[in-house]
Amino acid sequence: MTNSFEIELSHNLSTMAFVPSEDVFKTCLTHTSSYTQHNYTVNFTTVSNTKMASLNINYRKKTGPTNVLTFPEENTLNSVYGSIYFAPDIINSESSDRSAHWNLLIIHSLLHLSGYTHHNDEDTKVMQNAEQNILNSLKYG
Length: 141
What we know:
Layout: E1 5-12, H1 22-36, E2 39-47, H2 49-60, E3 68-75, E4 79-86, H3 88-94, H4 98-113, H5 121-138
Parallel strand pairs: 1-2, 2-4
Antiparallel strand pairs: 3-4
Helix pairs in contact: 1-4, 1-5, 4-5
């Protein structure tokens, strides 16, 4: 299977928060695509905490911002489409190893687009195993 993807990385921030380079997003996407055997078309967008809180209340009915929100748009047998929103200020405050943490969250979100969940213990183990395998391929495991 040939994996392909499109990335539109938007920076809609008022601060100069750390955000990984486009190459980091591409590398995580390539490794996740190889693992899942899915072709991805995904938009990555960074947003302020205020914007993330608005997305969170509108789509999840939860107050306050969260680190990442994933919105699947359409999936076919081998293709995955969606949008992923990141709140860099929150993400950067969660770990001292920003690079590894961003990689994990990018991969985690891409797996959600592929249908992985953590609604119960069994699903959580499957998703964590997938994350670890992909991180190992990146040398972050």
